[in-house]
Specification:
This protein is of the alpha/beta class. The protein has 20 helices and 26 strands. The chain is 36% helix and 23% strand. It is globular and about 80 Å long. The protein binds 5-amino-5-deoxy-1-O-phosphono-D-mannitol. 5-amino-5-deoxy-1-O-phosphono-D-mannitol (M6R) binds at residues 310-313, 357-359, 362, 365, 408-410, 494, 498, 614-615.
């Protein structure tokens, strides 16, 4: 799970590759490196740390920035600790080949032993240095060109990769290949320049023309000639389709906010609106979703829905369990993709599997999809990233249209996933006759008001900031919710721990007395979601139980609530709405709270330690 970039053309490659790496830092930021080729010289600069640390090194040696060809890498460590030596790019023993790699070579140890027996020595602990030397050895043995050597070497490899390889003896080309990790290629005018990247963000200001490689494909990118894509395993040529990029530069920049996370929290009213725009025609009482309309019988005849996802997306899946069962009366199981894929699950062709993923690249979710497909299930994807691996691997799907989410902590991805899942539940409830027409209309009218309510709710930022200042030094926190808001409690806890490193747990409020209640004392902040619908009285009782044990209560309540206000230390009011849609509102103050605590603690909000935006390894 790393980011790779590359450029070959007539411009200075350095600023393009480095800027590209900064945009890809969401994929990993343990170390960064770049190779520049200029006038017969390969210059590699790399370091532990971020792209900004790399720039300190390159700024001290102007020669290291020269050239019209460059490849770069930002790393999330898998093999070998993050240090300077293990950073990419890696160079082959002869010094001729240079590679950047996103993924894992699982059989690298066996290959390494074989190469060592042939006299190769290694500087790093990485699987990538093994791969570049394997390519070199194949090239030597076969007496072939770089493209063929890459192809033959990859047939010996077990694992996942997106690679870009440069050969000092063939300086008008870059060779790329993918299996399990994404690669986008940007095509400049008249084949005079080409861009390589893990996603299209590094090159959107240069070209809107892109080609996405599929798994088991490789491309030889040749200046003046173009891109030739072929299958790695059978050598057949692939007829590629050029796509026009929809992404804009503004979408991937901070736009005046201090952090991407804050920008993305504030983008939610628009993101939710964009998610249902054109799909929900509230006045006409219609929900149109092509992925469902085209496969309606699959859904209406399904014995059950199985949802597979990870992290925040899994939390959205839990909300969906309540939505689908309550509104469409379809049984739902929600599974961690990482568990599902390995536990020999019982799946039939009467099951519909919904895979939820912001990035569309999460390795466990992708593997779960492949497993479900192999057992005959119909698989539907809910993804944000257009053209992502999961979007392509599923039979049908619905995009969330949240726009690029750069902050590692998911915010707008979560609320837009819930929006898509709400539309799906409503549509299926209607198709199956499980929801009355008046109630269906009420739901649509109510959902339509959510973006404005979120906008309104975001105005409580100062109040949330104050609460953050009171509890920022806590070492443990509990998050409690019931029904639709139990997953929001889980998500609130995840948001806090991943960016502030404060230990936090989410629980169903009633479950507290079966164990976590023992943790409660006067130092323990407990965030309770207690909206006026659903199990309100029960949650109020849970709040009383906390109070009598001196816990500090911060309650998220419906506006006008007087009961909880009497008991809680702080209340945060959300606008009234249907119970089913409360997660779209209750989650907002919890996102803001985590954000402000992390900022107050001086943490790196957008790039928390040890994490990466998309987890493309197991
Ligand atoms: O891209 P995905 O939605 O598949 O990612 C799944 C998780 O890695 C992700 O939701 C993660 O938990 C979030 N970054 C947490 O904020």
């Amino acid at each position: 799970m790393c980011g790779i970039t590359g450029y070959i053309g007539y411009r200075e490659a350095y600023p393009i590759v480095v800027k590209g790496l900064q945009r890809l830092e969401y994929r990993g930021y343990d170390s960064a490196g770049i190779m520049m080729y200029d006038d017969g010289n390969i210059r590699v600069s790399k370091t532990k740390g971020k792209v900004s640390d790399l720039e300190v090194i390159t700024n001290s040696n102007e020669d290291s920035k020269k050239g019209n060809i460059g490849i770069g890498h930002t790393r999330w460590a898998t093999h070998g600790v993050p240090n300077d030596v293990n950073s990419h790019p890696h160079t082959s023993m002869s010094g001729n080949l240079v590679i950047v790699h996103n993924g894992i070579i699982e059989n690298y140890d066996t290959i390494k032993k074989e190469l060592v027996s042939r006299g190769y020595t290694f500087e790093s602990d990485t699987d990538t240095e093994v791969l570049v030397n394997l390519i070199e050895e194949v090239k030597k043995q076969e007496g072939c060109k770089l493209g063929k050597a890459v192809q033959l070497a990859l047939t010996q490899v077990i694992g996942a990769y997106a690679i870009a390889v440069f050969d000092k003896t063939k300086t008008n080309e870059i060779v790329v290949a993918r299996l399990g990790s994404p690669i986008a290629l940007g095509i400049g005018k008249d084949n005079k320049e080409f861009f390589v990247a893990s996603d299209a963000s590094p090159f959107i200001e240069y070209t809107k023309e892109a080609v996405y490689l599929e798994d088991e494909e490789m491309a030889i990118i040749k200046l003046g000639k173009g891109i030739k894509v072929r299958k790695i395993n059978d050598d057949s040529l692939v007829d590629t389709k050029t796509q026009e990029l929809q992404m804009s530069l503004e979408q991937i920049e901070k736009g005046g906010y201090d952090h991407f996370m804050l920008k993305e929290i504030h983008e939610q009213p628009k993101a939710i609106l964009d998610t249902y725009r054109g799909r929900m025609l509230a006045d006409k009482g219609i929900i149109r979703m092509a992925g469902i309309d085209d496969n309606l019988k699959k859904f209406t005849n399904a014995d059950r829905i199985i949802i597979v996802a990870c992290g925040t997306s899994w939390h959205a899946g839990l909300v969906a369990e309540y939505l689908f069962e309550d509104i469409a009366r379809i049984p739902v199981e929600v599974e961690y993709a990482s568990e599902f894929r390995y536990r020999n699950p019982i799946i039939t062709d009467k099951d519909v599997v919904i895979a939820i993923s912001q990035s569309g690249e999460t390795a466990d979710t992708l593997a779960a999809i492949k497993l479900a497909k192999s057992k005959g299930a119909f698989v539907f994807g809910v993804c944000n990233v257009v053209g992502s691996s999961i979007a392509r691997e599923t039979h049908a799907g619905a995009y969330t249209h949240a726009g690029p989410e750069i902050g590692v902590a998911s915010t707008k991805a979560f609320t837009t996933q819930i929006t898509v899942l709400s539309l799906m539940a409503l549509k299926l409830g209607k198709e199956k006759g499980k929801i009355s027409t008046p109630l269906f209309h009420t739901y649509l009218q109510t959902l339509q008001l959510i973006p404005n309510k979120v906008e309104e709710l975001l105005k409580i930022d100062d109040q949330v900031k104050y609460i953050a200042s009171v509890y920022k030094d806590a070492t443990n926190c509990l998050y409690l919710g019931r029904g639709f808001n139990f997953p929001v409690a889980l998500e609130g806890a995840l948001k806090l721990k991943e960016i502030s490193y404060i230990h936090a747990e989410g629980y169903p409020a009633a479950e507290m007395k079966h164990g976590p209640i023992a943790l409660i004392d006067e130092n323990m902040p407990i965030f309770v979601i207690a909206t006026n619908k659903g199990h309100y009285e029960k949650v109020v009782s849970n709040i009383q139980e906390i109070k009598s044990r001196a816990g500090k209560i911060i309650a998220v309540v419906t506006e006008g609530d007087e009961t909880v206000k009497e008991i809680a230390d702080h209340v945060i009011e959300i606008p009234d709405t249907e119970e089913a849609f409360t997660p779209l509102l209750t989650t907002i103050p919890l996102q803001l709270l985590s954000y402000h605590i992390a900022v107050m603690l001086g943490k790196n909000v957008d790039q928390p330690r040890n994490l990466a935006k998309s987890v493309t390894v197991e």
